[in-house]
Amino acid sequence: MTGFSPDWLTLREPYDLRARSREVIAAVAASVATLPSVHIVDLACGTGATVRALTGHLPSRQVWRLADNDLGLLGRANAMAHADGVKVTTVPLDLNRDLEAALDGAVDLVTTSAFLDLVSKSWLDRLTTEIVARAIPFYAALTYDGRIDITPNDPSDASIVAAINEHQATDKGFGLALGPEAAGHAVAQFERLGYAVIHRQSDWTMEPNDRDIQLQIFDGWAGAAREIGAVSLADTASWLARRRANIAAGTSSLRVGHVDLFAVPTGRR
Ligand SMILES: C[S@@+](CC[C@H](N)C(=O)[O-])C[C@H]1O[C@@H](n2cnc3c(N)ncnc32)[C@H](O)[C@@H]1O
Protein backbone atom coordinates (compact mmCIF):
# COMPACT_ATOMS: atom_id res chain seq x y z
CA MET A 1 0.00 0.00 0.00
CA THR A 2 1.33 3.45 -0.86
CA GLY A 3 0.81 6.68 1.09
CA PHE A 4 -2.44 7.54 -0.65
CA SER A 5 -3.54 4.20 -2.11
CA PRO A 6 -7.30 3.55 -1.92
CA ASP A 7 -6.63 0.39 0.12
CA TRP A 8 -4.64 2.34 2.70
CA LEU A 9 -7.25 5.12 2.89
CA THR A 10 -9.99 2.49 3.35
CA LEU A 11 -8.01 0.71 6.08
CA ARG A 12 -7.37 3.89 8.04
CA GLU A 13 -10.82 5.48 7.70
CA PRO A 14 -12.48 3.77 10.72
CA TYR A 15 -9.50 4.74 12.90
CA ASP A 16 -9.66 8.29 11.59
CA LEU A 17 -13.39 8.42 12.23
CA ARG A 18 -12.97 7.21 15.80
CA ALA A 19 -10.12 9.68 16.40
CA ARG A 20 -11.84 12.82 15.08
CA SER A 21 -12.62 15.23 17.91
CA ARG A 22 -16.38 15.29 18.63
CA GLU A 23 -15.93 18.75 20.17
CA VAL A 24 -14.36 20.15 17.02
CA ILE A 25 -17.05 18.55 14.83
CA ALA A 26 -19.71 20.11 17.09
CA ALA A 27 -18.11 23.54 16.58
CA VAL A 28 -18.09 23.03 12.80
CA ALA A 29 -21.73 21.94 12.88
CA ALA A 30 -22.79 24.92 15.02
CA SER A 31 -21.13 27.38 12.64
CA VAL A 32 -23.35 26.38 9.70
CA ALA A 33 -26.44 25.10 11.56
CA THR A 34 -28.71 27.97 10.52
CA LEU A 35 -27.87 27.89 6.81
CA PRO A 36 -30.62 26.49 4.56
CA SER A 37 -27.94 24.76 2.52
CA VAL A 38 -24.18 24.53 2.99
CA HIS A 39 -21.54 24.83 0.25
CA ILE A 40 -18.39 22.99 1.27
CA VAL A 41 -15.01 22.60 -0.42
CA ASP A 42 -12.97 19.60 0.74
CA LEU A 43 -9.26 19.94 -0.10
CA ALA A 44 -7.26 16.75 -0.82
CA CYS A 45 -10.43 14.71 -0.48
CA GLY A 46 -9.04 11.25 -1.25
CA THR A 47 -12.07 8.95 -1.51
CA GLY A 48 -14.29 11.42 0.41
CA ALA A 49 -13.69 10.49 4.07
CA THR A 50 -14.53 13.98 5.31
CA VAL A 51 -17.89 13.93 3.54
CA ARG A 52 -18.70 10.66 5.30
CA ALA A 53 -17.48 12.01 8.66
CA LEU A 54 -19.34 15.33 8.55
CA THR A 55 -22.45 14.86 6.48
CA GLY A 56 -24.67 13.66 9.35
CA HIS A 57 -23.70 16.72 11.42
CA LEU A 58 -24.59 19.37 8.84
CA PRO A 59 -27.89 20.79 7.53
CA SER A 60 -29.55 18.24 5.25
CA ARG A 61 -28.96 20.29 2.09
CA GLN A 62 -25.24 20.14 1.32
CA VAL A 63 -23.26 20.92 -1.81
CA TRP A 64 -19.76 19.40 -1.63
CA ARG A 65 -16.93 20.19 -4.05
CA LEU A 66 -14.11 17.68 -3.60
CA ALA A 67 -10.63 18.59 -4.88
CA ASP A 68 -7.69 16.22 -5.33
CA ASN A 69 -5.04 15.50 -7.96
CA ASP A 70 -5.43 11.70 -7.84
CA LEU A 71 -7.97 10.72 -10.49
CA GLY A 72 -8.44 7.18 -9.12
CA LEU A 73 -9.33 8.51 -5.67
CA LEU A 74 -11.62 11.14 -7.18
CA GLY A 75 -13.40 8.40 -9.15
CA ARG A 76 -14.11 6.56 -5.89
CA ALA A 77 -15.25 9.78 -4.19
CA ASN A 78 -17.59 10.46 -7.09
CA ALA A 79 -19.16 7.02 -6.80
CA MET A 80 -19.84 7.25 -3.06
CA ALA A 81 -23.42 6.87 -1.84
CA HIS A 82 -24.93 9.85 -0.04
CA ALA A 83 -28.25 11.03 1.30
CA ASP A 84 -30.89 12.85 -0.74
CA GLY A 85 -30.18 16.54 -0.48
CA VAL A 86 -26.42 16.00 -0.54
CA LYS A 87 -24.74 16.86 -3.82
CA VAL A 88 -21.12 15.87 -4.46
CA THR A 89 -18.97 16.99 -7.37
CA THR A 90 -15.28 16.27 -7.85
CA VAL A 91 -12.63 18.64 -9.16
CA PRO A 92 -9.33 17.26 -10.47
CA LEU A 93 -6.82 19.86 -9.41
CA ASP A 94 -3.22 20.25 -8.22
CA LEU A 95 -3.58 22.16 -4.96
CA ASN A 96 0.04 23.27 -5.07
CA ARG A 97 -0.58 25.05 -8.36
CA ASP A 98 -4.29 25.87 -8.31
CA LEU A 99 -5.35 26.32 -4.68
CA GLU A 100 -7.16 29.60 -5.42
CA ALA A 101 -9.29 27.94 -8.13
CA ALA A 102 -10.42 25.34 -5.59
CA LEU A 103 -11.75 28.11 -3.33
CA ASP A 104 -13.55 30.13 -6.00
CA GLY A 105 -17.32 30.56 -5.98
CA ALA A 106 -19.84 30.30 -3.14
CA VAL A 107 -18.19 28.57 -0.17
CA ASP A 108 -19.52 28.42 3.42
CA LEU A 109 -16.91 26.01 4.80
CA VAL A 110 -13.52 24.62 3.74
CA THR A 111 -12.50 21.21 5.05
CA THR A 112 -9.54 18.89 4.81
CA SER A 113 -8.22 15.80 6.60
CA ALA A 114 -4.89 14.00 6.89
CA PHE A 115 -3.36 16.63 4.65
CA LEU A 116 -1.86 19.69 6.39
CA ASP A 117 1.25 17.79 7.56
CA LEU A 118 2.16 17.27 3.87
CA VAL A 119 2.40 20.93 2.96
CA SER A 120 5.13 23.53 3.31
CA LYS A 121 5.08 26.62 5.49
CA SER A 122 4.72 28.89 2.47
CA TRP A 123 1.81 26.86 1.08
CA LEU A 124 0.05 26.82 4.45
CA ASP A 125 0.53 30.59 4.73
CA ARG A 126 -0.99 30.92 1.25
CA LEU A 127 -3.94 28.74 2.31
CA THR A 128 -4.60 30.70 5.50
CA THR A 129 -4.32 34.01 3.64
CA GLU A 130 -6.78 32.90 0.95
CA ILE A 131 -9.27 31.54 3.48
CA VAL A 132 -9.10 34.61 5.71
CA ALA A 133 -9.47 36.93 2.70
CA ARG A 134 -12.74 35.13 1.89
CA ALA A 135 -13.80 35.02 5.61
CA ILE A 136 -14.57 31.28 5.37
CA PRO A 137 -14.49 28.89 8.36
CA PHE A 138 -11.88 26.13 8.05
CA TYR A 139 -11.91 22.58 9.48
CA ALA A 140 -8.72 20.50 9.31
CA ALA A 141 -8.82 17.04 10.86
CA LEU A 142 -6.14 14.48 11.59
CA THR A 143 -2.94 16.45 11.14
CA TYR A 144 -0.05 14.30 12.41
CA ASP A 145 1.74 16.04 15.28
CA GLY A 146 4.90 13.94 15.86
CA ARG A 147 3.79 11.95 18.94
CA ILE A 148 4.18 8.17 18.65
CA ASP A 149 3.80 5.79 21.57
CA ILE A 150 4.26 2.07 20.86
CA THR A 151 3.66 -0.71 23.39
CA PRO A 152 5.72 -2.69 24.30
CA ASN A 153 8.69 -0.31 24.25
CA ASP A 154 11.69 -1.19 22.10
CA PRO A 155 15.23 0.23 22.41
CA SER A 156 15.16 1.29 18.74
CA ASP A 157 11.82 3.18 18.95
CA ALA A 158 13.39 6.57 19.64
CA SER A 159 15.74 6.47 16.64
CA ILE A 160 13.01 5.08 14.34
CA VAL A 161 10.52 7.76 15.47
CA ALA A 162 13.16 10.45 14.93
CA ALA A 163 13.67 9.13 11.39
CA ILE A 164 9.91 9.08 10.74
CA ASN A 165 9.60 12.68 11.84
CA GLU A 166 12.57 13.65 9.67
CA HIS A 167 10.86 11.91 6.75
CA GLN A 168 7.63 13.77 7.52
CA ALA A 169 9.48 17.02 6.87
CA THR A 170 10.64 16.05 3.36
CA ASP A 171 9.02 17.41 0.19
CA LYS A 172 5.59 15.88 -0.46
CA GLY A 173 4.88 18.02 -3.52
CA PHE A 174 4.50 21.41 -1.82
CA GLY A 175 8.14 22.11 -0.87
CA LEU A 176 9.68 20.92 2.41
CA ALA A 177 6.76 19.74 4.51
CA LEU A 178 5.85 21.14 7.92
CA GLY A 179 5.13 17.59 9.12
CA PRO A 180 4.64 17.60 12.91
CA GLU A 181 4.80 21.44 12.97
CA ALA A 182 1.82 21.90 10.65
CA ALA A 183 -1.09 22.03 13.09
CA GLY A 184 0.69 24.41 15.45
CA HIS A 185 1.61 26.67 12.56
CA ALA A 186 -1.95 26.67 11.22
CA VAL A 187 -3.38 27.58 14.63
CA ALA A 188 -0.86 30.41 15.07
CA GLN A 189 -1.48 31.79 11.59
CA PHE A 190 -5.27 31.81 11.88
CA GLU A 191 -5.08 33.45 15.31
CA ARG A 192 -2.63 36.05 14.00
CA LEU A 193 -5.05 36.83 11.19
CA GLY A 194 -7.94 37.39 13.62
CA TYR A 195 -9.69 34.00 13.58
CA ALA A 196 -10.83 32.12 16.68
CA VAL A 197 -9.43 28.59 16.70
CA ILE A 198 -10.50 25.49 18.59
CA HIS A 199 -8.00 22.61 18.47
CA ARG A 200 -8.06 19.20 20.13
CA GLN A 201 -5.97 16.04 20.00
CA SER A 202 -7.42 13.38 17.70
CA ASP A 203 -5.01 10.50 18.22
CA TRP A 204 -5.16 7.17 16.45
CA THR A 205 -5.41 4.38 19.02
CA MET A 206 -4.74 0.83 17.95
CA GLU A 207 -5.21 -2.18 20.20
CA PRO A 208 -3.63 -5.66 19.89
CA ASN A 209 -6.52 -6.85 17.70
CA ASP A 210 -5.92 -4.06 15.18
CA ARG A 211 -3.31 -6.18 13.43
CA ASP A 212 -3.68 -5.21 9.76
CA ILE A 213 -3.33 -1.50 10.28
CA GLN A 214 -0.42 -1.87 12.70
CA LEU A 215 1.38 -4.07 10.14
CA GLN A 216 0.87 -1.44 7.44
CA ILE A 217 2.00 1.36 9.72
CA PHE A 218 5.16 -0.38 10.89
CA ASP A 219 6.05 -1.44 7.32
CA GLY A 220 5.58 2.15 6.19
CA TRP A 221 7.66 3.53 9.04
CA ALA A 222 10.49 1.08 8.34
CA GLY A 223 10.41 2.26 4.71
CA ALA A 224 10.56 5.90 5.81
CA ALA A 225 13.49 5.15 8.15
CA ARG A 226 15.29 3.36 5.30
CA GLU A 227 14.86 6.40 3.04
CA ILE A 228 16.21 8.75 5.72
CA GLY A 229 19.18 6.44 6.37
CA ALA A 230 19.97 7.59 9.91
CA VAL A 231 19.30 4.10 11.32
CA SER A 232 21.21 1.21 9.74
CA LEU A 233 19.25 -1.09 7.45
CA ALA A 234 20.03 -4.05 9.72
CA ASP A 235 18.75 -2.22 12.83
CA THR A 236 15.60 -1.10 10.99
CA ALA A 237 14.98 -4.64 9.76
CA SER A 238 15.38 -6.16 13.22
CA TRP A 239 13.11 -3.45 14.74
CA LEU A 240 10.46 -4.30 12.14
CA ALA A 241 10.83 -8.03 12.83
CA ARG A 242 10.32 -7.44 16.57
CA ARG A 243 7.32 -5.21 15.90
CA ARG A 244 5.78 -7.85 13.59
CA ALA A 245 6.38 -10.55 16.22
CA ASN A 246 4.56 -8.45 18.84
CA ILE A 247 1.60 -8.03 16.49
CA ALA A 248 1.50 -11.78 15.85
CA ALA A 249 1.67 -12.43 19.60
CA GLY A 250 -1.24 -10.03 20.24
CA THR A 251 0.81 -7.71 22.46
CA SER A 252 1.20 -4.66 20.20
CA SER A 253 -0.68 -1.42 20.69
CA LEU A 254 -0.09 2.03 19.32
CA ARG A 255 -1.01 5.68 19.75
CA VAL A 256 -0.23 8.20 17.00
CA GLY A 257 -0.71 11.88 17.76
CA HIS A 258 -2.99 13.98 15.56
CA VAL A 259 -4.69 17.33 15.94
CA ASP A 260 -8.09 18.54 14.71
CA LEU A 261 -8.72 22.25 14.39
CA PHE A 262 -11.55 24.55 13.45
CA ALA A 263 -10.82 28.19 12.64
CA VAL A 264 -13.64 30.69 12.32
CA PRO A 265 -13.74 34.41 11.52
CA THR A 266 -14.46 36.61 14.54
CA GLY A 267 -15.22 39.82 12.68
CA ARG A 268 -12.42 41.51 14.67
CA ARG A 269 -10.01 41.96 11.75
C1 LIG B 1 -3.46 11.10 3.37
S1 LIG B 1 -4.48 11.41 2.00
C2 LIG B 1 -5.95 12.05 2.80
C3 LIG B 1 -7.18 11.84 1.97
C4 LIG B 1 -8.50 12.18 2.66
N1 LIG B 1 -8.58 13.59 2.99
C5 LIG B 1 -8.70 11.33 3.89
O1 LIG B 1 -8.74 11.83 5.00
O2 LIG B 1 -8.84 10.09 3.71
C6 LIG B 1 -3.76 12.88 1.27
C7 LIG B 1 -4.49 13.33 0.03
O3 LIG B 1 -3.80 14.47 -0.51
C8 LIG B 1 -3.89 14.41 -1.91
N2 LIG B 1 -2.87 15.27 -2.50
C9 LIG B 1 -1.52 15.19 -2.29
N3 LIG B 1 -0.90 16.13 -3.02
C10 LIG B 1 -1.86 16.82 -3.70
C11 LIG B 1 -1.85 17.91 -4.61
N4 LIG B 1 -0.70 18.49 -5.00
N5 LIG B 1 -3.03 18.37 -5.10
C12 LIG B 1 -4.19 17.78 -4.72
N6 LIG B 1 -4.28 16.76 -3.85
C13 LIG B 1 -3.12 16.27 -3.35
C14 LIG B 1 -3.68 12.92 -2.20
O4 LIG B 1 -4.07 12.55 -3.51
C15 LIG B 1 -4.53 12.29 -1.09
O5 LIG B 1 -5.85 12.10 -1.51
Largest sheet: 8 strands, mixed
Derived from helix and strand composition plus strand pairing, the structural class reads alpha/beta
Low-confidence stretches: none
H/E order of the elements?
HHEHEHEHEHEHHEEHHE
- Shape annotation: globular
Rounded mean pLDDT is 96
Please bin the fraction of helical residues.
40-55%
What is the distance, rounded to the nearest whole angstrom, between the alpha carbons of the first and last residues?
45 Å
Strand content bin: 15-25%
Q: What is the strand tally?
A: 8
Our Rg estimate from Cα atoms comes to 19 Å
Per DSSP, the total helix count is 10
Assembly state here?
A: single chain
Ligand inventory: S-adenosylmethionine
Give a verbal description of the structure.
45% of the residues lie in helices and 23% in strands. It contains ten helices and eight strands. Helix 6 links the parallel strand 4 and strand 5. Helix 5 (95-103) runs parallel beside helix 6, helix 6 runs parallel beside helix 8 and helix 7 (157-168) crosses helix 9 (211-228). It is globular. Bound molecules: S-adenosylmethionine.
Give descriptors for this structure.
45% helix, single chain, alpha/beta, 269 residues, binds S-adenosylmethionine
Compact overview of the structure:
The protein has 269 residues and is of the alpha/beta class.
Q: How is this fold's topology laid out?
A:
Blueprint: H1 6-19, H2 22-32, E1 38-43, H3 49-54, E2 62-68, H4 71-78, E3 86-92, H5 95-103, E4 109-113, H6 121-134, E5 138-151, H7 157-168, H8 182-192, E6 195-201, E7 204-206, H9 211-228, H10 233-249, E8 253-265
Parallel strand pairs: 1-2, 1-4, 2-3, 4-5
Antiparallel strand pairs: 5-8, 6-8, 7-8
Helix pairs in contact: 5-6, 6-8, 7-9, 9-10
S-adenosylmethionine (SAM) binds at residues 4, 9, 44-46, 49-50, 68-70, 73, 94-96, 113-115, 173.
